[in-house]
Write a structure and sequence with these properties.
By secondary structure, the chain is mostly helical. It contains nine helices and no strands. Helix 1 packs across helix 5, helix 5 packs antiparallel against helix 9 and helix 6 crosses helix 9.
C-alpha cells in the first residue's frame, strides 16, 4: 500500500494539484488583506478569522474539491491509463484508496494553509495600516479546531465528487455536479434542509444553532467515510465509462 501511495504522491507532484492547493487558500488571504485595508478601525481577531473561514467553507472549499477531484481523475482518464493500472499485480481497491487518501491529504493541507495565510494577512494588514490592526487576543486553538471541523464536515462532499470524477472518463459530470451543488448551496444558504446538502455541511460549522453544527458534522464526517468506502469498493469492481 505504501508503494501505491508513493506513486500517487509523485503523480500529484508532477500535476497542477500543488498549484491549486496553494492558489485557492492564497486567494482568500489576499481578499482578506485588501478588505482589511479598506477599513477605518480595528476589529477582533476572531471576527476576521471567522469571516475568512466562512468564505473558504462556503465557496472556495467546494470549488477546490470539485477541481482537485477532477484533476486527480483526469491524470488517468486523459492518457487512458486505467487499463494499465488495473492490470498491475496490485489489488484494485488499493489504487482507488490511494487516490482518495491523497485527495483527503491535499484538502486537509489546503484548510491548514488557508488558516495560516489568513493569520499572516491579518498581521500584514495591521502592520501596514495600524488603525485597522486586529484587536483582542487570537484564540489559535479554537480556530484550528473550527477549521478541523470544516474539513471533517467536507468528507461527504469529497467522497461524492471523487466517486463521480473517477467513475466517468469525461470531466463534465463531476464539474456539473460540483458547480450545481455549490450554486444551490449559495442560493439556499438559509434553508433548514440545506444542512443535509454535502456542499453546505462545511459552512454549517460556523452556524450559531448547535443542532446545525452537530447534524452537519455527524452527517458530513460519518456518511463521508461510508461513501468513500463504498466508492472504493464500487470502482474496484467495474470498468470506467
Amino acid at each position: 500500500m505504501l508503494s501505491v501511495l508513493g506513486v500517487e504522491a509523485r503523480k500529484l507532484n508532477r500535476s497542477l494539484a500543488l498549484l491549486l492547493a496553494v492558489a485557492a487558500p492564497t486567494l482568500i488571504a489576499v481578499f482578506l488583506f485588501f478588505n482589511m485595508l479598506r477599513g477605518k478601525e480595528g476589529q477582533p481577531w476572531e471576527m476576521w478569522l471567522q469571516q475568512s473561514t466562512g468564505i473558504w467553507a462556503f465557496f472556495m472549499l467546494p470549488m477546490s474539491v470539485t477541481a482537485l477531484t477532477a484533476l486527480v481523475a483526469h491524470m488517468e482518464h486523459g492518457p487512458k491509463a486505467w487499463d494499465h493500472l488495473r492490470a498491475l499485480p496490485v489489488a484494485r481497491w488499493k489504487i482507488y484508496a490511494a487516490k482518495a487518501f491523497c485527495v483527503l491529504l491535499v484538502i486537509e493541507a489546503m484548510c491548514l494553509l488557508c488558516l495560516l495565510l489568513n493569520i499572516g494577512a491579518i498581521a500584514a494588514a495591521g502592520a501596514i495600516k495600524p488603525a485597522v490592526a486586529a484587536t483582542g487576543e487570537m484564540n489559535l486553538a479554537g480556530q484550528f479546531l473550527l477549521m478541523g471541523k470544516v474539513f471533517a464536515a467536507s468528507l461527504l462532499l469529497i467522497g461524492v465528487q471523487l466517486w463521480i470524477a473517477l467513475r466517468f472518463s469525461s470531466f463534465v459530470p463531476a464539474l456539473a455536479v460540483g458547480i450545481g451543488g455549490t450554486f444551490f448551496s449559495v442560493v439556499a444558504v438559509s434553508a433548514r434542509i440545506g444542512v443535509l446538502s454535502p456542499w453546505q455541511m462545511p459552512v454549517n460549522m460556523l452556524a450559531t444553532e448547535a443542532w446545525r453544527v452537530t447534524t452537519a458534522l455527524g452527517l458530513g464526517c460519518g456518511l463521508g467515510a461510508v461513501v468513500l468506502i463504498l466508492a472504493i469498493a464500487h470502482l474496484a469492481r467495474r470498468e470506467v465509462l
